[in-house]
Design a protein that fits this description.
Order of helices and strands: HHHHHHHHH
Strand content: under 5%
Radius of gyration: 26 Å
Largest sheet: none
Distance between the termini: 54 Å
């Protein structure tokens, strides 16, 4: 690619001119697709990566610095990192699939829970407020630990610690063999 064309594309990118994207695609699209495909080894994923990469390129166009890297090097890094992220995302989703046939979550019968022990909300006031808030957010409001951290403006590590200590305090209130504690702990596993 000529240096003149590359400079023109950079100028268009910095001006946020949409023609820059079409020029990038015409001149670099096939090569960047090859970069993505080499990482993800799947045509469909490589196409997704290429599209996501061009979106990132457009959004980050003002961060390109010609004194730090050539245009292609910058494009290559964005595409390669996007492909790696996509691959990790796909692998994580595959790892998290629930195997219902090997799970015993749905096999708990009504007879295995004791109605007189399902009064956790009433007993929350017997533990310190900082633990009450976390347990309420996680178990009664249905928040994830990250959501509780964001909503309560408490660091994620502190949320996890308060959850653990709060459950330990509840365990002191209940018989350690109580089903409700086992249910709460099973949610965390």
């Amino acid at each position: 690619m000529s240096t003149l064309l590359e400079k023109h594309i950079v100028e268009l990118l910095q001006e946020r001119n949409e023609k820059a994207i079409s020029l990038l695609y015409e001149n670099y699209g096939d090569t960047l697709y090859g970069v993505a495909h080499k990482v993800v080894r799947n045509d469909e994923l490589a196409q997704d990566v290429l599209q996501e990469s061009f979106v990132k390129i457009w959004k980050k166009s003002d961060s390109y610095d010609a004194s730090k890297a050539k245009l292609f090097t910058w494009l290559f890094r964005i595409t390669r990192n996007t492909a790696i992220d996509k691959l990790r995302s796909v692998n994580t989703k595959t790892d998290k699939e629930i195997q219902i046939d090997v799970s015993d979550v749905y096999n708990l019968g009504v007879e295995s829970t004791k109605p007189d022990l399902i009064d956790v909300r009433e007993n929350l006031d017997k533990i310190e407020e900082k633990y009450q808030v976390v347990l309420d957010a996680l178990f009664f409001q249905g928040m994830t630990q990250q959501e509780a951290s964001d909503e309560l403006d408490i660091p994620l590590g502190t949320i996890k610690s308060r959850l653990k200590i709060g459950l330990r305090e509840l365990r002191k209130i209940y018989n350690p063999d109580a089903m409700i504690i086992a249910l709460l702990l099973s949610v965390l596993i």
